[in-house]
Design a protein that fits this description.
This protein is α+β, with helices and mostly antiparallel strands. It has one domain. Helix content is about 30%, strand content about 25%. The chain contains three helices and five strands. A three-stranded antiparallel β-sheet has the order 1-2-3. A two-stranded antiparallel ribbon has the order 4-5. It is globular and about 40 Å long.
Protein backbone atom coordinates (compact mmCIF):
# COMPACT_ATOMS: atom_id res chain seq x y z
CA UNK A 1 0.00 0.00 0.00
CA UNK A 2 1.31 3.45 -0.89
CA UNK A 3 1.40 5.73 2.14
CA UNK A 4 2.53 9.34 1.84
CA UNK A 5 5.33 10.77 3.92
CA UNK A 6 3.01 12.79 6.17
CA UNK A 7 0.79 9.75 6.71
CA UNK A 8 3.91 7.75 7.67
CA UNK A 9 4.87 10.39 10.24
CA UNK A 10 1.43 10.37 11.83
CA UNK A 11 1.35 6.56 11.93
CA UNK A 12 4.77 6.50 13.62
CA UNK A 13 3.53 8.84 16.33
CA UNK A 14 0.45 6.69 16.84
CA UNK A 15 2.42 3.42 16.80
CA UNK A 16 4.62 4.75 19.60
CA UNK A 17 1.59 5.32 21.85
CA UNK A 18 0.03 8.52 20.56
CA UNK A 19 -3.62 9.25 19.79
CA UNK A 20 -5.78 11.57 17.69
CA UNK A 21 -8.49 13.45 19.56
CA UNK A 22 -11.36 14.57 17.38
CA UNK A 23 -13.78 17.47 17.80
CA UNK A 24 -17.31 17.20 16.45
CA UNK A 25 -19.87 19.73 15.31
CA UNK A 26 -22.96 17.59 15.67
CA UNK A 27 -22.22 14.49 13.57
CA UNK A 28 -19.22 15.67 11.54
CA UNK A 29 -15.62 15.79 12.69
CA UNK A 30 -14.42 19.38 12.22
CA UNK A 31 -10.98 19.39 13.89
CA UNK A 32 -8.35 16.92 15.06
CA UNK A 33 -5.43 17.09 17.48
CA UNK A 34 -2.68 14.49 17.20
CA UNK A 35 -0.88 13.91 20.49
CA UNK A 36 2.24 11.83 21.04
CA UNK A 37 2.69 9.58 24.07
CA UNK A 38 4.09 12.47 26.13
CA UNK A 39 1.07 14.69 25.43
CA UNK A 40 2.80 17.02 22.97
CA UNK A 41 0.82 18.16 19.94
CA UNK A 42 1.99 16.87 16.55
CA UNK A 43 1.25 19.64 14.04
CA UNK A 44 1.67 17.62 10.81
CA UNK A 45 -1.70 15.90 11.30
CA UNK A 46 -4.49 17.93 9.73
CA UNK A 47 -8.07 17.06 8.82
CA UNK A 48 -7.39 15.82 5.24
CA UNK A 49 -4.58 13.54 6.46
CA UNK A 50 -6.84 12.23 9.21
CA UNK A 51 -9.61 11.51 6.69
CA UNK A 52 -7.21 9.61 4.39
CA UNK A 53 -5.95 7.47 7.28
CA UNK A 54 -9.49 6.75 8.45
CA UNK A 55 -10.74 5.95 4.94
CA UNK A 56 -7.90 3.44 4.47
CA UNK A 57 -8.67 1.94 7.92
CA UNK A 58 -5.17 2.60 9.20
CA UNK A 59 -6.60 4.23 12.35
CA UNK A 60 -9.66 3.29 14.39
CA UNK A 61 -11.75 4.47 17.32
CA UNK A 62 -13.94 2.38 19.59
CA UNK A 63 -16.91 3.83 21.44
CA UNK A 64 -16.04 7.50 20.91
CA UNK A 65 -12.51 7.10 22.27
CA UNK A 66 -9.55 8.88 20.62
CA UNK A 67 -8.30 7.37 17.36
CA UNK A 68 -5.30 5.04 17.61
CA UNK A 69 -3.40 3.01 15.03
CA UNK A 70 -5.25 -0.14 13.96
CA UNK A 71 -3.63 -3.54 13.52
CA UNK A 72 -3.73 -3.03 9.75
CA UNK A 73 -2.04 0.37 10.19
CA UNK A 74 0.62 -1.15 12.41
CA UNK A 75 1.50 -3.63 9.69
CA UNK A 76 1.44 -0.98 6.94
CA UNK A 77 3.88 1.44 8.55
CA UNK A 78 7.58 0.93 7.87
CA UNK A 79 9.87 0.54 10.84
CA UNK A 80 11.95 3.51 11.84
CA UNK A 81 14.47 3.83 14.68
CA UNK A 82 13.38 6.02 17.56
CA UNK A 83 15.93 8.82 17.85
CA UNK A 84 15.07 10.11 21.31
Amino acid sequence: MNISREEQRVLHVLAQGGCIRHHRDGRRIVAVDCLDRDGNRFVDCDLPTFERLRRRRLIASKGGAPYVVSEFGRRAVRSQPDNR
